[in-house]
Amino acid sequence: xxxxxxxxxxxxxxxxxxxxxxxxxxxxxKDTDTMVLLRRIREVRDPLYWFSHDWPLENHFYRPISTLTxxxxxxxxxxxxxxxxxxxxxxxxxxxxxxxxxxxxxxxxPWMAALGSFTFGLWHLFNAADxxxxxxxxxxxxxxxxxxxxxxxxxxxxxxxxTLATQWAGSAFPLYGAMVAWLPGRTASTMAIFALVSLAAYxxxxxxxxxxxxxxxxxxxxxxxxxTAGEVIHPRRRQVGWLLLAYAGLALxxxxxEQAIMVPALLLGLAIWFNLxxxxxxxxxxxxxxxxxxxxxxxxxxxVLPTTVSRxxxxxxxxxxxxxxxxxxxxxxxxxxFNGLWASLQSGIEILVMPEPWHALLMGxxxxxxxxxxxxxxxxxxxxxxxxxxxxxxxxxxxLKHFAHYHHFPAxxxxxxxxxxxxxxxxxxxxxxxxxxxxxxxxxDPAPGSLPRP
Length: 454
Description:
This protein is mostly helical and 454 residues long. It is 62% helix and 0% strand.
């Protein structure tokens, strides 16, 4: 009997590191937001109160689910800061495992789920960027050299993976301080858990019930035998539990953090991926329920919260080029390195004696090489989903002044794209360093030994 590789070891290992680095100092409870939040909870003394009122900071946000995590901590730990820090770490760990499940459902490759969830967990470790940046950048340089020297996609694929890992290793989004060491950051992690569960449960429902799109046979098609017969399509009524879990996950995510308003769009994106990337016929009609739920959420907010903009919200809204640059960090990540290079060159050509402009140039080349290398990848639709989903997940936060916890949920989707990119790395590298295929000699006409033709 074939043994399955223990792929859950990877997210479990990085979760252990997160747990060992959990915050526990008394300063956790001395943050201004945390102090006001706990004081308000202790005044009200009614966990159900938050389902029909503004959340404890009273800045016009509807977050009853994430507020309940503070209610539980207050009940269990009181003024013991270590308990609150442990809860923050456990919420991040739960997000790591929820991401493992989502990637597993989409790729059907446990090793890819292990890689994506492990990478996502690494981004939450203290000083992860400082440890990983140098070796990953060196790997990106090697990939660019291989790509240029061989003029093949494999080298650029190596550069792509290393460059993405360099960019997303935590230097751009310091997730440790926002998600592990800052208690209010748990609003984002609580939401991310339920959002990922909703996406994964919906993906499982479609994977089990959506029929394949028939395609005409080609010379490369396998002969259908007992071992290669098509997968079994399960009756929808027997799998309705997964669909109900998807709805429940969306409802809980919406009650945790406002960023969840993008989850119905991401669920629709998953349906598009199933249609284009996995050749299935998804059940489009069930998405009406997700959007109706989003409409109900807006109606509830209007009924519960003041319709005016709070002072905090007015302070946080922003406009101008910063919004565009934040969106480009997700939509076109190669723009930032080239933009930084151009800004450096404005100070004079002598800046080229410094390593920073060369770092920016190689980062930009690596990311451009990524797009070139992945145009023929078998996982290109999965990569596209992860890439675009991360951008859409961040989109509502682009018009707010920057806080690192805005990137927690988008980073999970970036990790999905990263794992899919890395999935084609082995074959691409072998293609880059292996001998070129030889052209078969021309076949004589008529072929030797053939009968004469009129």
